[in-house]
């Protein structure tokens, strides 16, 4: 049996803006700090809907609700097959308190995504017609 890891991503919206956070990835790459939406892994037995709300709260201090699934993605790391589910989530507040893992945040409009979000994520967002 293969190894699987299930990931979630929360595209958090407040009014007409979306939350992006800057986090460290790897010192061996040209840009070790990168902008991204809130993401994380499921704990064993956890529902994806609960995981995305939990990660948003843990990483930003925000309470959010789920709107819809936006897109899914997959990739391999060694012998582990990663499966990801991205959710559109809404929050009534924009006062972010970052976790220690994150170094910065911005609330951006949809037309600013290209300045912050990696091309592979942008392609998925375009398919979701966000």
Fold and architecture overview:
The protein is of the alpha+beta class and 130 residues long. The protein has a single domain, classed as Nucleoside Triphosphate Pyrophosphohydrolase (Alpha-Beta Complex), CATH 3.90.79. Helix content is 21%, strand content 45%. Strands 1, 2, 3, 4, 5, 6 and 7 form a seven-stranded mixed beta sheet that branches. β2 and β3 form a beta hairpin. The longest helix is centred in the middle third of the chain and has 13 residues. The protein is globular. 22% of the residues are buried.
> What CATH architecture would you give?
Alpha-Beta Complex
Main β-sheet: number of strands, strand sense, barrel status? 7 strands, mixed
The number of helical runs is 3
The shape is globular
CATH fold topology: Nucleoside Triphosphate Pyrophosphohydrolase
- CATH class reads Alpha Beta
* Low-confidence residue ranges: none
* Strand proportion: over 45%
| Helix-strand makeup class | alpha+beta
Order of helices and strands: EEEEHEEEHH
Number of domains: 1
Report the radius of gyration as a whole number of Å: 14 Å
Instruction: Give the termini separation.
Output: 36 Å
Portion of residues within helices: 10-25%
- Using DSSP, what is the number of strands? 7
What's the pLDDT, averaged over the residues?
A: 92
């Amino acid at each position: 049996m293969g190894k699987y890891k299930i990931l979630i991503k929360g595209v958090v919206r407040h009014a007409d803006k979306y939350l992006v956070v800057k986090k460290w990835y790897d010192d061996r790459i040209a840009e070790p700090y990168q902008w991204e939406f809130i993401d994380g892994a499921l704990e064993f037995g956890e529902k994806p809907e609960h995981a995305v709300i939990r990660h948003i709260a843990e990483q930003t201090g925000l309470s959010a609700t789920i709107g819809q699934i936006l897109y899914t993605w997959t990739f391999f790391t060694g012998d582990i097959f990663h499966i990801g589910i991205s959710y559109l989530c809404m929050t009534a507040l924009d006062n972010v308190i970052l976790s220690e893992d994150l170094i910065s945040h911005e609330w951006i409009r949809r037309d600013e995504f290209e300045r912050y979000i990696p091309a592979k994520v942008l392609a998925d967002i375009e398919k979701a017609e966000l």
